[in-house]
Amino acid sequence: MRAAAVLLELGVCAGHHRFAIVHAAGHARAVLRRLPVRRELNRNRLRRYRRGADHGFRVPRRRHAALLDRPDRRAQRSAQHHPALAAARHLPPRNGRARTRTGNRERAVSRIALDIDHVGLVGPDIHGTVAAFRELGFRVTDPVELMGTGPDGQEKSLDQQSAHFIFGSTYVELSEVTRPGPDHHLGAWLGDDPAIRILILRAADIDTVREQAVASGQDPTPVGEASRALHYADGATARFKWLALPPESFPEALCGYVQHLTPELVFRQEMNAHPNGAGELTGMTLHAADTRDAERRFEPLGRAGAPESLDIRQAEGDASGFTVLHLRTRSLNRTADTLAAAGKPFKRDARTLAIQAPGVLLHFHE
Q: What are the residues facing 120 on neighbouring strands?
């Protein structure tokens, strides 16, 4: 009797579960019939899918980071089919480190290899500019008067104060013209706001470079001599020869060449120890209203195999100018930590870090 009761109970339970399974299967078929149909042309078959955002689909934040830092075809397809995943690109940054999209980037119209010795950012307040770059983690020297040699062979002021942050074989100059005027060698490029207005290429023999420039139809200035006192290297004086190319050929900045007479004093290893990890200037970007004209003017300055480069991109308006400096850093994490500690906003992706400095955008890369 007891065995019969147990068998009867098992039969009822089995029937109940079978009814539940059949009911669930029927409900699933009804739901699937109401879903949109998507045809995959490459496989020529029908596949039903549901949009993740419509059903509260959410991807873990760690998965977001993986998709943003290492985008691949699968991640791109997922972002297209799931709006929640695509919206993950706009999540607020963590730990003060912003991420930018790592998809197709804007490509340079052209790239010209140049032997860049240094670039100069010229503005009306050198002390404020020096303080701003020190806050960004650069080791900047104190401003000093730039001296030149007059026709009588005596040193005279060039009415320009300059400070520098030095790398391995390049440097960035921060300058202020103390007596602006049309006769100043920077007079054709001065403005109210700080901007990159100096591009100087290195020359092993400045006299030979001038002869070649004259032979190519240009009208460079005579070779001049200049010097500046150093707050490092035991207070020595750095000396060099330089020339400038005609301003009508390069309206964006003073372009010219320099031959260092005392390079061992300028490029000291202890001066290339910046807290933000920057170690070298690798290039710059020019946004030009007429890119073909810019290529025509700057290509004669190029040299195949030169370590630095100039990227020429299309400007949005009619104005042309140098807008970006590209810097190699020893560690992007170190650069990000230094800027975050100083409270400086920046944008970062897997390969680069960008931050706006006075008059120029800085792009760091490893």
A: 173, 198
